[in-house]
Automatic annotation (TrEMBL):
Gene: lysA
Keywords: Amino-acid biosynthesis, Decarboxylase, Lyase, Lysine biosynthesis, Pyridoxal phosphate
Entry similarity comment: Belongs to the Orn/Lys/Arg decarboxylase class-II family. LysA subfamily.
Domain Orn/DAP/Arg decarboxylase 2 C-terminal: 15-366
NCBIfam families, per the entry: lysA
Sites of N6-(pyridoxal phosphate)lysine modification: 45
MF terms in GO: diaminopimelate decarboxylase activity; pyridoxal phosphate binding
Binding site for substrate: 261, 297, 301, 340, 368
Protein name from the UniProt record: Diaminopimelate decarboxylase
The enzyme's E.C. designation: 4.1.1.20
Annotated active site: 339 (proton donor)
Necessary cofactors: pyridoxal 5'-phosphate
One Pfam match: Orn_Arg_deC_N
Domain Orn/DAP/Arg decarboxylase 2 N-terminal: 22-265
Length: 412
């Protein structure tokens, strides 16, 4: 792909997503579970662009949503309502109501209090609510503490004993229908053992529920499959699926998984332009036009994103090791224009001499990139472009200043 042409056509900074890659990942995951009924529910928070959602919906994907805004996005993108799950620790009454009215597959409950709210709302609407309960299996996912969610010290899910009580309550309720069971122990998982351990724990709960005549139809293993940003261990999809299916021996359920990052992280790059170089006695800084408001993962999680230079000759990415004259390469921090010391995209990376106008590619930026972006420093959120079958198309316009101030202007 000629990134120089894309930069000229759409401007920078710019997110670019390879839809063919998303498709190959989706199909690989479906294929891994082919021995069973399965439903892949893309975690919308990872990349909520409508065109990405529409592309996935057309492949048959379902969606895991954590706000009614995400549910609306999924529906707007053409998702089948019966493939939408609504999760999250703090759903509001209006959100629960709208989710029920839209007949989504199920509402994933995260506390007994929430269950009682939902029961009331279902009763008001005279509509039975299909529920799932997010169980906290108390398994250490061995990932970054900010994205680890499966321990009792985390705010997510309910403890096993509590979950059983909730299912019993729901079974007796006229307005609640136990439908699924859910866990999600964390993100960017690079070890299989914790997921399989959790799957076995939750599968056992399901057997116990069955003995109580509570019939669970969907076994939801959450998302969290890790991807390679740098040199991480990648979980084998085959082993992942086999491990989960192994935990489900003798159980007649549909497996749901909720990948976010797995489907889109490495489909995306963030293209940014060099503004200046700056040297001080300690450091070399490459100042670019993209910043933490566009891609916050480095600042938020100290996340690593590979950086490569778009070479001058042909606009193709050059391999980091073969960049121009090796003598010119030195360590640099790639930083943005925002007034925060944490505004960096990469630290201590090897880069050749660069000048104003050179382009850098920040890799693995297709998940939790644009979807976590903001307008901090009154920066306009950048454009997004899709690549499909060798052609590029705009899927989100760059924001304008008028758009930025639209909700304030009338008050001055
Ligand atoms: C964040 C999240 C996901 C997706 O996580 P990834 O690491 O992007 O796969 C799936 N399910 C739930 C409940 C989540 O909170």
């Amino acid at each position: 792909m000629d990134y120089k042409i894309l930069a000229t056509k759409y401007g920078t900074p710019l997110y670019i997503y390879d839809f063919d890659y998303i498709k190959s990942r989706y199909l690989a995951l479906k294929n891994a579970f082919s021995a069973r009924k399965s439903l892949v529910c893309f975690a919308v928070k990872a990349n909520s662009n409508l065109s990405v959602l529409k592309f996935l919906a057309n492949l048959g994907s379902g969606f895991d949503c954590v706000s009614i805004g995400e549910v609306r996005r999924a529906l707007l993108a053409g998702a089948n309502a019966y493939k939408i799950i609504f999760s999250g620790v703090g759903k509001k009454d209006e959100e629960l109501k709208e989710a029920l009215q839209n007949n989504i597959l199920m509402i994933n409950l995260e506390s007994p209090a929430e269950m009682l709210r939902l029961e009331n709302i279902a009763k008001e609407l005279k509509k039975q609510a299909r529920i799932s309960i997010r169980v906290n299996p108390n398994v250490d996912a061995k990932t970054h503490p900010y994205i680890s969610t499966g321990l009792n010290e985390n705010k997510f899910g309910v403890e096993i004993s509590e979950a059983k009580k909730m299912y019993l309550y729901a079974k007796k309720s006229e307005w609640l229908q136990p439908y699924g069971i859910h866990f999600h122990i964390g993100s960017q998982l690079t070890e299989l053992a914790p997921i399989i351990e959790a799957a076995n724990i939750v599968s056992n709960i399901m057997s116990e529920l069955k003995a109580l005549e509570i019939d669970i139809k969907f076994f939801d293993v959450g998302g969290g499959i890790g991807v390679i940003y740098e040199n991480e261990n990648e979980i084998s999809l085959y082993d992942y699926a086999q491990g989960i299916l192994g935990a489900l021996k003798g159980q007649d359920v549909t497996v749901i998984c909720e990948p976010g990052r797995f489907l889109t992280a490495n489909a995306g790059v963030f293209l940014t332009k060099v503004l200046y170089q700056k040297l001080n006695s300690k450091k070399r800084f490459v100042i670019v036009d993209g910043a933490m408001n566009d891609l916050i993962r480095p600042s938020l999680y100290n996340a690593h994103h590979g950086i490569s230079v778009v070479s001058k000759q042909n606009g193709e990415i050059s391999n980091e090791n073969s960049v121009q004259n090796l003598n010119e390469i030195s360590k640099a921090d790639v930083v943005g224009p925002i007034c925060e010391s944490s505004d960096f995209l990469a630290k201590n990376v090897d880069l050749p001499e660069l000048k104003n106008g050179d382009l850098l590619l920040v890799k693995s930026a297709g998940a939790y990139g644009f979807s976590m972006s903001s307008n901090y420093n009154s920066r306009l959120r950048c454009a997004e472009v899709a690549l499909e079958n060798g052609t590029d198309r705009l899927i989100r316009r760059r924001e304008s200043f008028e758009y930025l101030i639209a909700l304030e202007r009338e008050f001055i």
